[in-house]
Design a protein that fits this description.
- This protein is α/β, with parallel strands linked by helices and 485 residues long.
- The protein has three domains: 132 residues, ornithine cyclodeaminase, domain 1; 174 residues, NAD(P)-binding Rossmann-like Domain (Rossmann fold); 146 residues, no CATH class.
- The chain is built from twelve helices and 23 strands.
- The strands form five sheets. Strands 9-8-7-10-12-16-14-15 form an eight-stranded parallel sheet.
- Helix 5 links the parallel strand 8 and strand 9.
- Helix 2 packs across helix 3.
- The radius of gyration is 31 Å and the shape is globular.
- The protein starts with 7 loop residues before the first strand and ends with a strand.
């Protein structure tokens, strides 16, 4: 039983996402994501906003991040488990969904582990372009894990950075990051201390993973005029910046109710002043006001950024092959007949026989033994001839029981019969009426070929013991060969 078009949701796998990134280009994609984020931040007040729903454990956190602009609804599932790398697992994994608000039907399901890395980097660079001192060319990248290369490339593509200075407590992480950035056009300097990495840097990015109150930047390490891009904090009890630095600087955040719980400002009082970054990007609040000012982007990630990323991917995959139509939704012809759709998809009750499909124009109760409209006359003649000699086809073969009213059962014949004709089977390599395995070698099979000029034209598929019903609206005709053995 074939799914209708409404049941199919575009699914972007990890492989599709990687292909799409290379198709667009990493830097153009980062700039495109930044544009979509800036656009959505400019209409911030249209969105439903709520802190993410989090389930914390000693080892990490699992979160849902939902939002809607009234037209589309989006959410992301994401985890953060710092110790995963010890077992060869990702610290962060994610997937997301975009849906139509009017119908509730999903319009996109996508991996978001790679996409989150891209949108996080794009957001950081978008804000740095706004808050960093004019002419900034050097960034200290403290924490050289999975996000570090994305941050570096985004700062290059969006904020104009030409030099990155790397530091991590694990030298192998720094070596990994430096190797990955070779050939990027960036000047890369590995460093052995955080202080060394900060020398001459106008942008300081901290991106560490430990779920602990930590002080990656102490007060004496940070001078006037820098921009701090603090992106490692994302849950209660996890910090990177000394409170004294926070009190010296001007703090910009995504969504205060969430950042006060999860960001570095959890160390400060609930009334400590902060500026929402969307107001700066929309021109409603000042950003950097002097060369000596310390600006701090206390970023924990927010659902609207993911919503922007989902919108971007939905638009970019249109008309491409970088997705798979996933049969995700039950969509019967009659919305009230969900049970009937299930019942019609049951495995055949006549093993060893092919149940010919009845075309939608056929009578509701075709008489037993009568060929239905889906089979041309010359094919029907051959099949009837086969049926006449089928009772002694093979040793131990039982005569077929009475034909069900929904079509004609064909018993095996000792002679091999082939004929070309048409069937109201949708041209797809996998059918919902297809059983899990061929019950016997003597089963009657319907082998069909895809038609048209597409890359899969000529592809063969096998249908047997069909249910005699399809839930598609308007079947597509396909050429087939009926083979009885």
């Amino acid at each position: 039983m074939e799914p209708s078009d409404k049941a199919l949701v575009p699914f972007v796998s990890v492989d599709h996402m990687m292909q799409l990134i290379h198709h667009i280009g990493l830097e153009p994609m980062l700039r495109g994501l930044a544009d979509y984020i800036a656009d959505d931040f400019s209409r911030w007040e249209q969105f439903d906003k709520t802190p993410r729903v989090a389930a914390h454990s000693p080892e990490g956190v699992i979160e849902l991040m939902p939002t809607s602009d009234g037209v589309s609804y989006g959410f992301k599932y994401v985890n953060g488990h710092p110790k995963n790398t010890v077992d060869g697992l990702q610290t962060v994994t994610a997937f997301g969904l975009l849906a139509d608000v009017d119908t509730g039907y999903p319009v996109l399901l996508t991996e978001m582990t790679l996409l989150t890395a891209l949108r996080t980097a794009a957001t950081s660079a978008l804000v740095a372009r706004t808050l960093a001192p004019a002419g900034a060319t050097t960034m200290a990248m403290i924490g050289n894990g999975a996000q570090s290369e994305f941050q570096s490339r985004a700062m290059q593509a969006i904020a104009g950075i030409t030099h990155v200075r790397l530091y991590d407590i694990d030298p192998t992480a720094t070596a990994k990051c430096a190797a990955n950035l070779a050939g990027s056009g960036l000047r890369v300097t590995p460093c052995t201390t955080a202080e060394a990495a900060m020398e001459g840097a106008q942008i300081l990015t901290t991106c560490t993973a430990d779920k602990a109150y930590a002080t990656i930047l102490t007060d004496n390490m940070v001078g006037a005029g820098v921009h701090i891009n603090a992106i490692g904090g994302d849950c209660p009890g996890k910090t990177e910046i000394a409170p004294a630095i926070l009190k010296r600087g001007d703090i910009f955040v995504e969504y205060p109710p969430q950042t006060r719980i999860e960001g570095d400002i959890q160390q400060l009082g609930a009334d400590h002043p902060v500026t929402e970054i969307w107001k700066v990007l929309a021109g409603h609040a000042p950003g950097r006001t002097s060369d000596k000012q310390i600006t701090i982007f206390d970023s924990v990630g927010f659902a609207i950024e993911d919503f922007s990323a989902l919108r971007y991917i939905r638009d970019q995959i249109e008309g491409t092959t970088f997705y798979h139509p996933l049969d995700l939704l039950a969509d019967p012809d009659d919305p009230r007949d969900l049970y009937g759709m299930l019942d019609r998809a049951a495995p055949a009750r006549y093993p060893g026989a092919l149940l010919l499909r009845r075309h939608s124009a056929s009578p509701a109760n075709a008489p037993a033994g009568q060929m239905t409209q889906s089979v041309p006359p010359h094919v029907a003649t051959l099949i009837k001839s086969s049926m006449a000699t089928s009772t002694s086809a093979r040793e131990g073969q039982r005569p077929m029981p009475a034909h069900p009213p929904c079509g004609t059962a064909i018993t095996p014949s000792p002679a091999r019969m082939t004929a070309l004709g048409k069937c109201d089977h949708r041209p797809s390599p996998v059918s919902r009426s297809m059983a899990t395995s061929v019950p016997t070698i003597s089963a009657a099979l319907l082998i069909y070929r895809r038609t048209g000029n597409g890359p899969e034209a000529g592809t063969r598929g096998v249908v047997f013991a069909g249910s005699g019903s399809t839930r598609t609206r308007g079947c597509t005709w396909a050429r087939f060969c009926a083979v009885v053995t």
